[in-house]
User: What shape does this take?
Amino acid sequence: MVNKLSLGEQLAQVPTVRKGPRCGVGMLLERLDPDDREAVINAMNDEMASAPFISRILVDNGYRITTNQIARHRRRECQCP
Assistant: This one.
C-alpha cells in the first residue's frame, strides 16, 4: 500500500519527544524579568554576540550559565521547545 501523503506531510506528523528538564538557558529565561529576558533573547539572536561573551556577562551578574549551554540552546540542541 502506497502512502498518499507527500514526504513533507509525513515528516510534519512525526511527534516531537523532548525528554528531561529544560536547559539552563530556558530555565534562566523563565525567571528573568521581562526586560532582562528580552535583552538575553536579543543577544542570543545576534550572530555577532559570541556565546562566551554572553556567558561572561550572565556569570558576572550572578547567573550560573556556561558557554556550552548557550551554544546548545542557540543550535536548538537542548530540551527547550
In short: The chain is about 55% helix and 0% strand. Residues 20-74 form one domain. Residues 37 and 43 are 10 Å apart (CA to CA). Helices lie at 7-12, 24-31, 34-45, 51-60, 67-74.
